[in-house]
Design goal:
Length: 449
Amino acid sequence: MRCANLSSEWHWILEQDSPRALPEFTAGEFGMADQSTVEPVLAKSARAQGAEIRHHTQCVSVEQDADGVTAVIEDRATGEHRTVRAQYLVACDGYRGTIRDGLGIARTGRGAIRSYVSFVIKADLSDLIEKTALFWIIGGEGVTGGFVTHAQPNHWGVALTYDPAVESPEDYTLDRCAAAAKALIGRDVPVEVVDKASWEEAVGVADSYRAGRVFLAGDAAHVWPPAGALGANSAVQDAHNLAWKLAAVIRGQAGDGLLDSYEDERRAVAVELADLTVRSQESRFGPTPKEDPLEPTVCILAQRYRSSAMIGAEHTGVIGEQVDQYARPGTRAPHLWLDHDGRCIGVHDLFHDAFALVTGPSGDEWTSAAVEATERTSVPVRAYRVGPAASGAELTDVESEWATRYRLGQGGAALIRPDGYVAWRSEELPAHPAAALTDALRRILSVSA
């Protein structure tokens, strides 16, 4: 939305009927989820799987050798130092982090563009905001800024620009923030400021995502303007891409070459998104609104990879013009609604901790091939047969889209990586399916026969 204040007339920037649900492309929904909502969920899941989370802690030095990485971390409250030893280190210390600089990795891009003070307010605006919107761009007398929907009831995000040459975030007291929020709202309503932070809008992509045993992910690897929800989504996709590869190498299932594919796949996407988000912001915030070149759904779900960790990725372009509905190597596996023992699931619910071999109802030989390939490589491969309700397949194709979206012959199969991307496909049943699958796995995982 664009308006002088929330109490004035609103003008839609994006389509009014943009749906939350995207049933054709994913089982998930598109919506606003702020850090205060997402972070506790991630922390709970991480702890449940054995992770140790230390707040108020920073990494002060990193050294690596042929066998691992040694990091020294500091408790910022006590000043106490602790040494941590690991096989690999993933630097997720953000745009202002020090690990990238310490590794000597440069960053390419325009650098800092704007400085912001952001804060969360608690205010009952139910009589003012009747239509659902994700954000408002507000420009009126005295104050301009962004106003963002939060997941928690009556909580809203506010972002104000400031000139660091003239003032600092400390100049924005709680009273000043509350007054600015009221000006953006356009009414003198009760406002409570519950959180405040400062940040820079910047553009930059690290020239390398890997230095030996250290990897960059999230804002440490790339930053761009907050357009289209591509910041956090891209950071999650970085982690999704890297995590299964690290796990495979640590378990001895893959060679070191698999880890090189992380940069090959994710950095190319980052370079493209950095350009798109800058042009998107210019179209939205310029004096005259222009057509936005960025389509969030496409930018998130239509990313295309080319690397050694897939076979037959022949597409051109890093981001497709639309979400791919064809299971070809290098693309996200097309969404399907499936019935599994009376429970409706999305096909991506099958892709987590193992490779998945998806085939049609007559894919019994592929099921046997998956078992044999697992024995030969020690890499778990789970086979799934998809078909109509009466076909005898374990998974029922609820909307009859299997044949259209996967485009395999009667005996064909598609191999999906743990991150949901198509790694290899066989149009038909080969003479020796177990051998073909085993060879594909070894090539994808950079393992010699």
